Each structure stands twice: as C-alpha cells, then as structure tokens.
C-alpha cells in the first residue's frame, strides 16, 4: 500500500532534471512514460544513503556544480562507522525548508521575523564535523560556517566531566542564541546538573527550544517542561543531514512533515497484524538544483494521524523510530520505540529508560529516576510491558548508567 503528499508535477520535474543533469541518475535507465503520472512515478527506482555516499561528490551533484560554490553548505550525518554521509545543500534551500516547517507552530513564529537565526547545537559528537568532544577546544573553534555554535560534549554523555558541562552551560548563555537546537537527552542531563549545582538559566530571553537527533520520550519532555514551560516554546523537529528540516511539531504536539519542499511517499510495511500500521517515509526533494534526491528511502517509520486539530494542511504523523530499531516478535508483530514510549508514558519515577532485546525472546527494561516507584507502579508497568512484548521473560532493573552508541547517541531500543 502506498500514500503520497505534495506536488506530483514538481516531483516529476525534479526527477526529470536529475536524470538529465546528474551523472548518477543519467547512468540509470531513462524514465519511461506510464498510464498515469502517479503510476509512472512509482516505477522510478528508489535511492538510498549508499548511493549518495559512494558517488559523492561528482556523481550526485548536478552538472557544473561544485561543493565549493557560493552558498553551498556541507553537513555530515551522525551515522556510526561505515554509515556516515556527507551532504551538500544550498543555504537558501535550507532557509526555505526551515521557514515552511516553522509555519506549523505559532509559538515559533517570532523566529520568522528575526533578522538572523543564531543557533546553539548540543548533541552527540558524531552529529557535527567540528571537534566538540575535546575539552581543550575554544568556543571559536566550534562555530560552523552558518554561525551555529556547537557546544562541547562528551562521547559518553552520562559520564561527562563537570567542567565540560559547565562550559556548555556558560556558552549556551554567552553566545546569546535565539534557538537551542538540542538532543533532548543532552539537554535533560544539563538541566539536572544545573539544578544540582545551583547554576541558574536566564529565562528572560527570547529563545525557542528545538528537539532533534534522538527520540524525545514523554519522560524527557516532562523534565524539559519543568524548565521551559511558560518561558521558552519547545517543539520536536524531524531533520536529516541530507535535507535540513523535514518536519516540525505543532502546538498540539503532533509532528507535521513538509509537503511543500518535498514530495512525500509512505510505503506500508508488510506485517501479519493490523496493529502494525507502519509506514516507511520516502522523500523526493523539490527545486534542488545542486544535489536532488529522488525517491530517497529514509528508513524512518511513521504512523499516519489524519487531520490535526491545529488546522495545518501538512500531513500529521507520529514518528515510531528507524527500521533498525524495530523489534520483530515471534508472532510477526513489530514493537517500535514510539509504541514503547506511548506505553511507558512519563511517570514521576522514570527519567530515562531503555529496552534491550536478547535472543530467545528475553527482554531487559532498564530505568532510572530521582524517585523510587512503589510496588504497585512497578507491577502495573511490568504487566503492560509483558502484554506489549508478548513475553513473560522480562527483567526490570533500576540502574544509574545506560550505554550509548559509539557515536554518542542514545538508543531507546537496542539488541544485545
């Protein structure tokens, strides 16, 4: 099953341009007419990250374009070893995509009137191509070409030395950003440290907090609300290094994907259970004359929500995680990070949690928090998790430490 959103004519123009002007696409079989534009578009082979990594730069840039052209910005994905990707985008395309995404959330409208977006980024080291994990770097060494300041950050977030946390806290204020572009886990750790150490956030600023990089669980959102609610607007962002902003959450909290700058296709995943209403997102860029992406598989999985109360015409979706993060149960059902988060919720006794899937259907649910659960709370969550996982082989552990990916990202669901 297939659903699409956006301007199909614009997507065809993008594909025609790519097959005429980009070496990688020119080496593929030519586009062929079909009975209908929609059916014909489905006949175009999909692309994926390896295609762009293997052929970068000459093979995937349009004829006559260069990574050194004016207004070209370079981004490096945060994938782990062998999976990283360098992407290039025109700065004005990035700005258009960001502005269209911001339009779905009125609390962020002040950013559209700002003469310049001044951003601080706080996320895993692999999410940046500057040296931010070295405690000896200066602030000036960590400013990107677009003016974004990358705050100092440790590879293993939960063991970050206090001086690095303090420097990140100080720079978050001294740089005077109007956007905190952060991993929710990283900001949560910084807030906790500030509270414990008596560091005071300046709440008299006009700042927006945009959450991205990793899954913003309800438990993390509860913690961030204690600092930001009533002061700073907070919204989750779906962003990719290949495209920049792809979607943003409205004031209702629902994620809307940008169907103005992209043609969005959702391909339903095959599953034997009707509850697995899961769709993989495939993106075609629109109007990209530098490095067009045609039917690009994101490996991101969503549920489609229908019309949102906010009134935005952009499609509302619920992000469920990446393909690699899905757990396939013996029954054939999938368990997604999104489904797990919806079940766990934001009880006062959980700040961070992680589910580990082991062989033979064994699971470990690890959690940490500043409050101890009572026996009934623990038993209730266990029962819900056993139903979700279709397994009684579940161990629940209160811990003080969680392993992170090699690149510094936190996995809500892991195998091991």
UniProtKB/TrEMBL annotation:
InterPro entries per record: ANL_N_sf, CapK_Type1_Caps_Biosynth
Tagged with keyword Magnesium: no
Question: What protein does this entry describe?
Answer: Phenylacetate--CoA ligase family protein
Name the PANTHER family on file: CAPSULAR POLYSACCHARIDE BIOSYNTHESIS PROTEIN (PTHR36932:SF1)
Upper classification of the source organism reads: Bacteria, Pseudomonadati, Myxococcota, Myxococcia, Myxococcales
Species annotation: Corallococcus carmarthensis
Q: Which UniProt keywords apply?
A: Ligase
Q: Which Gene3D superfamilies match?
A: N-terminal domain of ligase-like
GO molecular function terms listed in the Swiss-Prot or TrEMBL record:
ligase activity
Q: Does the record's keyword annotation contain Ligase?
A: yes
